[in-house]
Structures are given as structure tokens and as C-alpha cells.
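Researcher: Structure prediction, please.
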Amino acid sequence: MCGWKQSQIPKSSTRATRSRQVTSTTICGSDLHIYDGYIPTMQPGDIIGHEFMGEVVEVGSEVKRLKTGDRTVVSSAIGCGHCWYCKQQQWSLCDNSNPNGWMQEKVYGYGTGAIFGYSHAFGGYADSFADYIRVPFADFTAISVPKDIPDEKLLPVSDAFPTGYMGADLCNIQPGDVVAVWGCGPVGLIYTSTMDLFRRWSRATFSGMNLWEKSLKSVVKLSELRLAIGSSIHFPSPAVSASSANNR
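Model: Predicted structure follows.
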């Protein structure tokens, strides 16, 4: 069951966290697993949603890169930036972000890092289907973005865009390969739009498979999004550019 509840505005409870006002958020295909009951350890009153952006309203004393008033996009996967896995760019396996890894070991056989709003087994963090949210490891988990680009062009950077891009990267596309993207939903469309980069590198051939021609036309708009992201945002850490895709 879904519904509304009144909650207090979260505070920066530790020195490395920050609180932010959510300006945009969206549902992810992964959230459907929660609605369908496939993700254990959900509890009544849990707040879900893990693709979001907004404005910083409070920072902890150890947050150095962000300040109140900054406009930021936040990675759906939470990494500390300091453990062995984070240093190996395997942020979704972070040793420090998920206090409930022991729950996962019983179900999955191993523990992972935390994900915003994705059950208590993945950290129990309240997430973005709310007005405000607390962001741990803020200097690593969030990036500042320009104020003159609309939210709808930047929001995919939180999860959908890096998922599509890393999916293409993991394919290890080689010269002469023919690649079919089967299912052009949001991630499939982003996968297809990033193929411009891989096409230049490998001269491979790509095609999108979908019942709706309208979806394929959206690739053009997503290509424009990629150009806007690449030319306007400086990524101080690679956390957002690949972390969420590690979970797919």
C-alpha cells in the first residue's frame, strides 16, 4: 500500500552528511520490484525513490565541497569514497555505507553498499519521494550542477543515464560488432544515445528494437542531453558517472 505521511525535516545527523530540499525526483524501473513485493525488508512508512536532485539547505562540519544553496544531483548508490571497493571504483559494494549488510547476506549470500530508499537490507535510508532528504557521504555522493540547466535535463544523471552508459561499456563492444538494444525504455534509449561514443571508437553497428517508433525518436533528444551534460558539468569524482549502474 502507498500513501502520504507527515515527517520532520531531516537534519545533518553526522558531520559528513547534508540535508537538501528535493526539487525533482522520478520513479525508476527498480522501484517496481518494491511495489510488486520482490524486495524484502520493507516496512510500513518507508520512503522510497532514488533518482533525485535539489538544493542544499544544511551541511555537516566535514562537508568541504558543498555549501548551503548549491544545486546538486545525487547518485542513487551511496559510496563513502574511502574504502577498498570505492577506491577500486566499485562504489555499489562500499564497505561503509550500508549498516544492514548482514540482512543481505541471509538473502543474497553477500552484502553490498547502500541505495537510497531501497529497503532496510540496502541501508534503510529514507529517500526522495519527500520534500527533504538527508544525504550521507555528501562530498562523494553528490555533485554540483549549473543553475541554468532545467531539472529535467539533469535528473537522469542520478541513475538512468549512468545505467545506460555503463551497460554499453560493459558490453566490451569490438570493431565490427552488431549491437541490438532490445527494449527502448528510458535506460534503453540512453544506452542507444551513448552509442555515438562507442560507434566512434569501434565503428560498430547499432540498432534499437521497440514496438513504439515514438520512443526511438527520443534518442535525438537524449543525444542533446548527453552533449549538455558533457559540456556543462565538472565531475569532481566518478561516483555519479558509474555507481548506480553497478547495481543493475
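Model: The domain at 163-229 is CATH 3.40.50.720 (Rossmann fold).
Researcher: Thanks, that helps.
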